[in-house]
Amino acid sequence: MPKFAANLTLLFTELPFLDRFAAARAAGFDAVECQFPYDHNAADIRRRLDDNDLRMVLLNLPAGDWQAGDRGLACDPRRHREFRDSVHMALEYATLLDVPRVHCLAGIMPPGMDLRRARETYLFNVEHAARLCGPRGIRLLIEPINTIDMPGYFLSRTEQALDIIAACDNDNVFLQADIYHMHCMGEDVPAMLRRALPRIGHVQLADAPGRHEPGTGVIDYPGIFALLDELDYQGWIGCEYRPRGDTAAGLRWRDGPSMAAMPDIACLDPAA
């Protein structure tokens, strides 16, 4: 069975953020990840990691103003300076917290922007971030996010991400393979995992529909876990799902419960 990291942005939300570290350790996790730690002092997070013998394996670059609709800055040429500032902030946190991977959100395509210009901007910014990450021993990740949950998001398919990675003039760019997003975009998940494995730097999971824990939807997670073992995937799998009920109770899927398929319907989660 692969090794799992608790996403503390979505799990244990019945607790204040800094109390979720102890809850993750009590639930048997050795590692955590989070989307945006920036509302909290990095030194306070470091203490929670140390107190609970946890490692943080992933965080995101700042996404801009989330409440105003920002979902990343990297594809927007008008926000070049903001993007560069966001990289420096993320690296300050990642360095203090010993985080080995940071995810660069692509962002929503600006209205009326030419796709080619957005791609050029994104590629330029990804290369810039990767160059800064490399000397610190940090991998830069890019993640396709489905356009049902996040309409207009620039990077939405695994093939598109692999094309960006191949075009980068830097070998420190890797794929963040989110099984939920791949499924929602109609991709053949096992085939894509086999194809993309050499460039996969991190995996995340949630079931569909609903973006809840494995076993609540139609994705064949026992088969995917077996495949990742077969492929000798050595990285972490981030549990980036919204618990259908109590977080701890919902973790029984890790013990191999029945994951019978439910009727397939569209992915309609309000946020990715």
From TrEMBL:
Question: From which residue to which does the signal peptide run?
Answer: none
Q: Which InterPro entries match?
A: HPT_OtnI_isomerases, Hydroxypyruvate_isomerase, HyI-like, Sugar_Epim/Isomerase, Xyl_isomerase-like_sf, Xyl_isomerase-like_TIM-brl
Q: Where is the Xylose isomerase-like TIM barrel domain?
A: 21-253
- Name this polypeptide is given: Hydroxypyruvate isomerase
For this protein, the Enzyme Commission number is 5.3.1.22
State the similarity comment.
Belongs to the hyi family.
NCBIfam families found in the cross-reference section: OH-pyruv-isom, OxoTetrIsom
Active-site feature positions: E143 (proton donor/acceptor), E240 (proton donor/acceptor)
GO BP annotations, alphabetical order: glyoxylate metabolic process
Keywords, ordered alphabetically: Isomerase, Pyruvate
Species source reads Pseudoduganella lutea
From the UniProt record, report the name of the gene that encodes this protein.
Answer: hyi
User: Among its keywords, does the record have Cytoplasm?
Assistant: no
Offer one Pfam family short name for this entry.
AP_endonuc_2
Give an example GO molecular function: hydroxypyruvate isomerase activity
In which domain of life is the source organism classified? Bacteria
